[in-house]
Amino acid sequence: MTDPNDDGSVDLPHLRNALARANQIKPITDSITAEELRKKALAHLQAHAKRLGIGEVGEVKKEVAFKKADLQKRIVYGEVYVPNEKDSQGQWMTAEEIEKMAHRFMENLRLTQIDKQHDWEPDEGVVVESFIARPGDPDFTPGAWVLGTKILKEETWQAILKGEITGYSMAGVAELIPEQEGVS
Q1: pLDDT category, 21, cuts 50, 70, 90?
Q2: What does DSSP assign to residue 167?
Q3: Mean pLDDT over residues 37-66, rounded?
Q4: 172 CB-near residues (< 8 Å, 6+ apart)
Q5: Which residues contact 17 (CB under 8 A, 6 or more apart)?
Q6: Going edge to edge, which strands form the sheet with 125-132?
Q7: Can you give the pLDDT at residue 103?
């Protein structure tokens, strides 16, 4: 058996990828819940990241309101992440980092990974539009990542119409880079 604290064979790109996908882990037995398994795996991966000096790693959550909706097509539009605006953990991203994140989302074909209340059950909708808002956009902040999601479940659509669900709540894992003095 290998030592879980041995960092000698850890490949940094694979570690970063595993950190980014830790929220997708599913147990193969009933001996542990998905939430417990994900927490355990994330702790293990974060320990490697810390020892290897790739920066603080933490969960990122960001909630944003829907700004537009097409009622006929059951599509809602909202900013997933806005540049230089602090999230619920007090972190922020530049427009360049947001664009990289948006492109990775599309490259990894995560178009059906829309869940409700972070239940990790991707069954609520499908991404039908994804773009970075341009200067002069009348609806969205320049540099923001915007998604248009077609809502599949009737129950979820009704909750949106009633104002019970009002926007996106992004969750993920990111490498946190300490702020430099004079930069915020």
Answers
A1: low
A2: E
A3: 68
A4: 20, 23, 59, 60
A5: none
A6: 125-132, 145-151, 75-81, 56-70, 167-176
A7: 92
